[in-house]
Amino acid sequence: MTPLDRHPQVLPARIEATPLDPGLYLVSTPIGTARDITLRALDVLNAADVLVAEDTRTLRHLLSIHGIPLQGRRIIAIHDHNEEQQANTVLSLIEAGQSVAYCSEAGTPLVADPGFRLARHCISQGGRVHAVPGPSAILAALAVAGLPSDRFLFAGFAPQPKAARRDWLEKLMATDATAIIFESPRRIKQTLEILCEIDPNRLTVVCRELTKKFEEVFRGPASEVMQQIPQAGLRGEVVLLIDRAGATVVDEGDLESALRGLLDEMSLRDAAAVVAERYGIPKREAYQLGLSIERER
After folding, report:
1. pLDDT at residue number 278
2. Residue 242 needs a FRET pair 20 to 30 A away by CA distance; which of 7, 108, 204, 208 works?
3. What is the pTM of this model?
């Protein structure tokens, strides 16, 4: 169970709540810090006729932290092992005019968490599905990684067998996108070792315990990051990010030096084009840096 950091209540218990329209509400919940929940999520959890959770204990704990009373409502458990069967129960409640709020243990439902079969079944039967967006380990990791975010691929959990994991990583690392992987804290060291066998210089980021008290982020070439990870692995929730194939880190000082030299010989447009090709960066980026240099002259 993912622990939630305790904080003072942020929402007083309300005797009356604005009724929700019938339907399934997919509620994103904190991945660590309890205050990361959105105000709309609190409203939905307070007003829904029925609450559904991957882990009922986690949801009860979250409700308690934020002062949301059950007021006689029941919490139905839906997880990987019973989602298909319980989907019919939820649909019957929605058809009866009730609002159902579903929460996975932490983060956004359906994203490496149960909820897909439930949502798909509801949609197939004409039911309404509402997203209540909020915390996501994927986006949180992407935000702090410092890797390109214009195109990324969430690949889920890596296969457990070592040979299968290597083959899976080789294919993933060939894609033209930042790869985001959920990995076991005990296997992260071994996964990094495999990654180093494929490309030890690939820029890699390991995020541990995002939004929690002991949050850590390791950045650098795969070989350097691997050396920072204890042999026994890490503790807590881990997200691994891998830069796209062919990506390089360019020192801005090198770019500036190259542009200054070329601007003495050619136009800004031509100098930007030469630098962009030489360092593998967008022409616009080189052009903007060149403009800054020219203004200083």
Report:
1. 77
2. 108
3. 0.77
